[in-house]
Design goal:
It contains ten helices and twelve strands. By secondary structure, the chain is of the alpha/beta class. β9, α5 and β10 form a beta-alpha-beta unit. The structure holds NADPH dihydro-nicotinamide-adenine-dinucleotide phosphate (NDP).
């Protein structure tokens, strides 16, 4: 297998972040969040590091921190990378939003990861919930103070938010004492997020884009409306560069300065997804892909939509809460 070099982006904390991250959320089934079996994820992360991945995205709710930490520590021991060569992002879960809970939660994540610090700690949602999954009224600005404590303690080199809307991000910028380095949101051809991306950029905040393949791939056994891997316009662009349509869609993200977070546990696709740094799209090609926008979210936790800090548009028929 070849090893690719991933470029980096400068964050407003002065550190550099690799422009592509490996996603590690294994999905949801009737038993809840899917767990890694037989060290699958540890082996995937080892392979990812061998072929050049330097940024891993996880969250305490994914239950993948332990295996990611095993892989990183193995690769450090083997001399493949040093700690400072890898960039680890993890996230605070919604049940830990009180200021003093943030330190507890991050220390637990660091213990799972077996690391002294993370490169980036994100508030996973603006929504605080209690242990019994009733709504808590903790203001996300209180939580943000806890996040700031983590950067000051050096447990996180940078801090940021995820799933915040523009007004909520504006409030963090206005009322916080440390500006977020990153906002992580859903970005793919079905939801191109032009407004939030240009706002974040204008404020010096880097955007990470989750679920980057959008409708190209099946999700939970279902295909959603939108372009597939065989889409003729995407295929034409892919042919021009000798690439695949998933690579074109990842490159579209990179060319819009959005850090994509493709998840794969398949060796061939892991290699395919990192092999996107030897070409770039034209403005016209970016616009062709932009034209697929339908503002469709795949992550739409409508079961929380009556929470005062719910970030998204409300729907008429909210989903049942899978957490209770
Ligand atoms: P992705 O868009 O990364 O899609 C993942 C799916 O695509 C998997 O089924 C994978 O299968 C398949 N796949 C991967 N590469 C290819 C390829 N080259 N060709 C064809 N199929 C491919 O979706 P996710 O929703 O998993 O998002 C990615 C990551 O973003 C998550 O893992 C997580 O880290 C983060 N995330 C963050 C959220 C947040 O709230 N902040 C919410 C959702 C995601 P296979 O593994 O078999 O290759």
């Amino acid at each position: 297998a070849e090893c690719s070099e991933v470029p980096t982006i400068l964050l407003n904390n002065g550190e550099r972040m690799p422009a592509l991250a490996l996603g590690t959320y294994l999905g949801f089934d009737k038993n809840g969040i899917v767990k890694s079996e037989n060290k699958l994820l540890r082996d995937v992360v080892c392979q990812a590091i061998d072929i050049g991945y330097r940024h891993i995205d996880t969250a305490s709710i994914y239950s993948t921190e332990r295996e990611i930490g095993e892989a990183i520590n193995m690769k450090i021991k083997q001399g493949v990378v040093k700690r400072e060569d890898v960039f680890i992002t993890t996230k605070l879960w919604n049940t830990r939003h009180k200021r003093e809970q943030v330190a507890e939660a991050l220390r637990e994540s660091l213990k799972q990861l077996n690391l002294d610090y993370v490169d980036l700690y994100l508030m996973h949602w603006p929504i605080g919930i209690n242990d019994d999954y009733t709504y808590s009224d903790v203001d996300f600005m209180e939580t943000w103070q806890g996040m700031e404590d983590m950067q000051k303690l050096g447990l996180a080199k940078a801090i940021g938010v995820s799933n915040f809307n523009k007004e909520q991000l504006e409030r963090v910028i206005r009322e916080g004492s440390i500006r977020p380095a990153v906002i992580q949101i859903e970005v793919h051809p079905q939801i191109i997020q032009s407004d939030l991306i240009s706002f974040a950029k204008s404020e010096g905040i880097v955007v990470m884009g989750y679920s980057p393949f959008g409708s190209l791939v099946s999700r939970y056994g279902m295909f959603f409306a939108g372009p597939r891997i065989t889409d003729p316009k995407l295929v034409a662009i892919a042919r021009k560069y000798g690439k695949t349509t998933p690579q074109v869609v990842l490159r579209w993200s990179v060319d819009r300065s959005v850090v994509p977070i493709p998840k794969s546990v398949n060796p061939n696709r892991l290699q395919e997804n990192i092999n996107i740094f030897d070409f770039s799209l034209t403005k016209e090609e970016i616009n062709v892909i932009n034209s697929y926008n339908s503002n469709t979210r795949y992550t739409l936790p409508s079961f929380w939509q009556n929470h005062p800090y719910y970030p998204f548009e409300k729907v008429d028929h909210p989903l049942a809460n899978p957490f209770v």
